[in-house]
Amino acid sequence: MSTETDVLVLGGAGVDTIVHVPELPLPYADSYMIRPGITTRAGQSGDFVALGLNALGLRTHHLDMLGDDPEGDLVRALHREHGVPLTAVPQPAGTKRAVNLVGIDGRRLSLYDDTRSRAEDRFPEETLRTLAAAARHAHVVITHPCAEALSLLREAGPTLSTDLHNWDGANPYHEPFALAADVVFLSTTALTDHERTMRDIAGRGRAVAVVATAGAEGAFLLTDGTLTHVPAVPPPAPVVDSNGAGDAFAAAFLLGWLNGEDPARCALYGSVAGAHACTVPSTRAEAIGRAALLARAAEAVGDPV
Predict the structure, then answer these.
(1) Is 238 left (phi over 0), alpha (psi -120 to 50) or beta?
(2) DSSP state for residue 233 in the 8-state scheme
(3) Quick one: pLDDT at residue 1?
(4) Are 67 and 31 in contact, with CB atoms under 8 Å apart?
(5) E-assigned strands of 82-239?
(6) pLDDT tens digits for 117-131?
(7) Beta carbons within 8 Å of 292's beta carbon, 6+ residues apart
(8) Which residues lie closer than 8 Å to 73 by C-beta, 6 or more apart?
(9) pTM to 2 decimals?
(10) Which residues of 172-205 are buried (b: 16+ CB within 10 A; e: fewer)?
(11) How big is the CA angle at 244 (ends 128 and 299), to the nearest 5 degrees?
(12) Cα dist. 175→49, 142, 197, 204, 226 in Å?
């Protein structure tokens, strides 16, 4: 089947306000003087995955709901700047936004504005069906209303991936995403037993690969019933912000997966991209390119470049 798009990214378009803080958790105080300042920029999970895929040379299209507001204008401008096609469905409640508190060690705490979506929100069926039919693969962000699109995506034919982020393994909201996707990403942050959760996802769902990222400890890859530890790749520069590292990991993993690479190689690509993302200041949207990714991956395992 001929396709116009390698990856359709659903959801996760929005704006973050970045606030640098001296430490996390932030001790209570009446006020803090903030340097290097407070910055608002476009870029949430779906945006970062789309930009990451595009930088790696994959034909990418992003679909989400945006408001007719300054935040929506920032998201549209970001996609124009990077040449990523964007289909923006009108969102009367406004564009998604969040505040990220970023510590000096690069860790972050995200505060999401939950007023910017409505229970009745849906992607137009004809739009979704047309875009899905033109795509090899769809990466589904867990923002609303993406859960409502899962059954149609499966009917349309592309393979699916999703990122459950800091799922605790129990919250029922995440389960439809976990069980519908062929490739599942998640963080070990909130898991008491990551292996049990990973095996449960693979056992009850469709996933042929489950990847749990663990920050500086690397990641864990489950394929064909075998759990493998994927070592972390040293960042090429000092770590300044972990925001977007998981999105970069997912984009690079999908590059390898869509090219038929071995899952372990895909995970290596993800680790390289995630390490790179940690060196990019939170005020910038910058993704690793394919040449740099492949060179650093080869260097990490001692392959000739």
Answers:
(1) beta
(2) P
(3) 45
(4) no
(5) 86-90, 96-102, 108-112, 135-140, 159-163, 183-187, 209-213, 219-223, 226-230
(6) 888 999 999 999 999
(7) 276
(8) none
(9) 0.93
(10) eebbbbbbbbbbbbbbbebbeebeebbebbbeeb
(11) 110
(12) 21, 10, 11, 10, 22
pLDDT confidence tier of residue 263, bands split at 50, 70 and 90: very high
Burial class (CB in 10 A: 0-12, 13-18, 19+), 295: middle
Question: Each residue of 238-258: pLDDT tens digit?
Answer: 888 777 899 999 999 999 999
- To the nearest whole number, what is the mean pLDDT of the chain? 93
Q: Which two tokens stand for residue 111?
A: 């505060």
Tokens standing for 237? 């520069």
Helix (H, G, I), strand (E, B) or coil at 8: strand
- Closest CA relative to residue 93, chosen from 77, 78, 124, 71: 71
Q: How far apart are CA 182 and CA 258, in angstroms?
A: 12
Q: How far apart are CA 151 and CA 187, in angstroms?
A: 25
Q: State how far the Cα of 210 lies from the Cα of 201, in Å rounded to an integer.
A: 8
Predicted pLDDT at 169: 94
